[in-house]
From TrEMBL, chain A:
Keywords: Endoplasmic reticulum, ER-Golgi transport, Golgi apparatus, Transport. The keyword Endoplasmic reticulum applies. Its main location: endoplasmic reticulum. The keyword Secreted does not apply. It comes from Hibiscus sabdariffa. Part of the multisubunit transport protein particle (TRAPP) complex. This is Trafficking protein particle complex subunit.
């Protein structure tokens, strides 16, 4: 069950945050996303090993906390996608697939000539696509 | 089996599914749009350098979006961190997507460490444009320079990019050169990475 997705700009400014459960405190989710940015920066600046993993976009499991898992993805323009989920047995391929579709939706939203770079993403189409992707993520990993 | 390859005929043209469409735009349509862009900006500014700045800013917005799009579409999972990597990316991939061919040449400047040049015999955007004598050094390639600056800036390589005419002996039309001058921090980072 995905609880939250976030898009963070290259200066660590939030561009889009959406939570998908009413029960949890939105503030706590924002705080978790904020803390995960530190982990992202750490991974980017101190790569564990050089070579194929140096420039990879998918950062993988950033850190597990209480009952959440946080995944990260870095695009070429230093824009970060953060995914917070409560699932315990999430497959790596599922998360990669999710980020791939999320990246496609993000590229479409940014290609809008009326979108100002580094400002909040206000497109409703983007919000709709994101909720579709989130819903289908839950279904595919349940089967 | 006979008839297996029959194409489905649609009774009504409105029922035909929309294809993916060609990835190309007609040159004349683009040239028309670009000429309108230049003319519109001409009425808004007082001097040539402002006109160049406006064209560059228009190109910057295009460059930012092109980078996002290309990285998602083509590059798979790689992020460019090296100078030569991003330059060859601009020189081949970006040029191919925008103009249908790779740029003519990519050279390193001789006087300064931080200068690189992409040359082209004739920029696509300049194909139907001739500069009047009284506009001197104005170059509509400022739009393309803006695109390159947008791509480099958003990839983490801040640079100053300009477009120049370089006269070549033996041809009456001068060659176009896009001059890229990287910021100090880029060179320091490059030196640190070894």
């Amino acid at each position: 069950m995905i609880v939250c997705v976030a898009v963070v700009g290259h200066q660590n400014n939030p561009l889009y945050i959406q939570s998908f459960t009413d029960a949890d405190d939105a503030l706590k989710l924002h705080h978790i996303v904020h803390c995960s940015l530190d982990v992202v920066d750490e991974r980017v600046n101190n790569p564990k090993k050089s070579g194929p993993t140096l420039n990879d976009t998918f950062l993988g499991l950033l850190y597990p906390t209480e009952n959440y898992k946080v995944y990260g993805y870095l695009t070429n323009t230093k824009v970060k996608f953060i995914l917070v989920t409560t699932d315990l047995d999430v497959r790596d391929a599922d998360v990669r697939n999710f980020f791939r579709r999320f990246h496609a939706a993000y590229v479409d939203a940014v290609s809008n000539p009326f979108h100002v770079p580094d400002k909040k993403i206000t497109s409703r189409t983007f919000a709709d696509r994101v909720s579709t992707i989130v819903k289908s993520f839950g279904l595919s990993s349940a089967t | 089996m006979i008839g297996a390859g029959k194409i489905k005929q649609y009774a009504n043209i409105l029922e035909k599914p929309l294809g993916k469409g060609k990835q190309e735009v007609s040159l004349s349509a683009f040239a028309f749009l670009f000429s309108e862009l230049v003319q519109y900006n001409q009425t808004q500014v007082d001097n040539i350098s402002e006109l160049e700045t406006r064209l560059e800013d228009a190109g910057y917005a295009v460059g930012a979006r092109v980078l996002e799009l290309l990285c998602h579409r083509e590059k798979g999972n790689r992020r460019e961190t090296r100078l030569l990597g991003i330059l060859s990316f601009v020189h081949s991939t970006v040029w191919k997507v925008l103009f249908g061919k790779v740029a003519d040449s990519l050279e390193k400047g001789t006087e300064h460490e931080d200068e690189y040049m992409i040359s082209e015999k004739e920029l696509l955007v300049n194909k139907f444009i001739s500069i009047p004598k009284d506009m001197g050094t104005f170059h509509c390639g400022a739009f393309v320079a803006g695109i390159v600056r947008g791509v480099l800036d958003n990839a983490g390589f801040p640079a100053v990019v300009t477009a120049h005419f370089v006269p070549v002996e033996g041809q009456q039309r001068p060659r176009t050169t896009i001059l890229i001058k990287f910021a100090e921090e880029v060179l320091q980072r490059e030196a640190r990475l070894g």
